[in-house]
User: What shape does this take?
Amino acid sequence: MKRLKTLSLSAAFFLLLSSVSVSAVDFSARLLPSYDYVIKSSFQNVFGGTVGLDISSGIFKTRHEAYISLQAEPLFFTATKVDAVNSFNFAVALGCNFRITDRFGLSTEGYGGVWWLPEDKDNGLQSASGPFFGGRLSADYYVSPAIKASLYGGYKNLYYKPQPFLESVEMGVGISINLTRSLFNSDGVKTQTYETQPLFPIFYAHYDNNNFGSFTFTNIEKNDIKDVEVSVFIEQFMSVPKVIGTFERVKQGEDFSVDLTAFLNETIMNQMQNQITDALISVSYKSLGQKNLFESRFFLQTLTRNSMSWEDDRRAAAFVSARDGAIQRFSRQITLALKDKIATTPSPNYLYARAIFEVLKAYGINYVIDPTSVFSTSNTIAVDFLQFPYQTLLYHGGDCDDLSILNCSLFEALGVPTAFITVPGHIYMAYDSGLSKAQADAVYGKDKYIVQDDKVWIPVEITVPQDSFALALKYGLREWTRYADDHNLIPIHDAWLEFKPVTVPESDVSVQFPKEVLKNLK
Assistant: This one.
């Protein structure tokens, strides 16, 4: 009957372990030297020590632990006129560690097993054995995450008929070493969740202050951790790791989250194909004064340098570059051709705008409908392919976003501020007239412009590059008016504050500038 009860209790204990939320399983070695104060025995002094292998598990996601322990205990008995004799005890213990603070805790355990006294002919003792049982209560001090010192006391009964072979109160000090932490460098932090977004090379500078994903970690130590520092390193595109989060203290069992940002270098602009990039996230922290490091590798999708998605229309401004080599060549030629006329014209920006239109027309720029473009579909998540200004010149054409980027780049290179105009399914551009409303009425006609932020903007439809400049202005204003309730004007300089312009080295290509077209420009 007693044996059945023991088996039932053991089964219930293991069922509890399997049903609760287990945060970790650890193996620990324990040494408990002891002195026994004898209550009943033929011996006067009893010394011993327990060696145990503990298998523990965190339960209910708290710092408390349940454990099962396999134990062996040699005991040494002394009495008057009798040489010391010894017995051997073997037991299984069930217990719990209750962590009160980071450093202090209480432990309680009950154990049972068998004891065995070898035959000792010198002392006239026959071999004897029997069951034994007992329990301990200890006060624990955690020296480090892997080492625990204890002061304990307990009751022990080596059962025998007609009276116990030994009934005593034991006391002693102990030490426990967590083998999992010491030998296998078990982590005290784990990744709870994470998500990443594709890396767009064109926004490499943007990612220094804007996230492309996030990580959430959990402190699975049995104590609070301090001086937590999270860093990320993408070896292919970074020179050194970047610290992306610091926390003075994270409580036991608590989650902490960081946004992924990175100081990427310009080598990412060499990305000509989509690829999977290896990255490393690290969490350094102190646990009970001991420095620890958790590292985890993850993967990012890195897209081509011409890739962009339209979650924010301002993003396209990163492709607008006044320093593009081919754009610089065109702008210098326009400046030289108009240098005598600029000083006498009432509206220099109008003259520059006409010059740009006529130069691109003579150069042979064409509007090409791109059936794969996602801008017209209003799909802000899908990845689009945008051309750098020099590419549009080399290809002699592009779709509406490519032509907008090209025109804005030329205007900006000439010192004329520009803007994107977006309406449903279409993007085009506007330039700052540099005039007051009254002056603009005289040059362009009454109300043939857009007023925003105290500037008078002139909309230009860039999809009619082979028609007339007057028609481009007419269509530009018509589109703005047609979508009066659903249009936006995005100044390029404002967009650059968030999405810095990028120039690729190979943009300094040789293009044939059509000089003759500007001779008769007025």
Notes: The two ends are 113 Å apart (CA to CA).
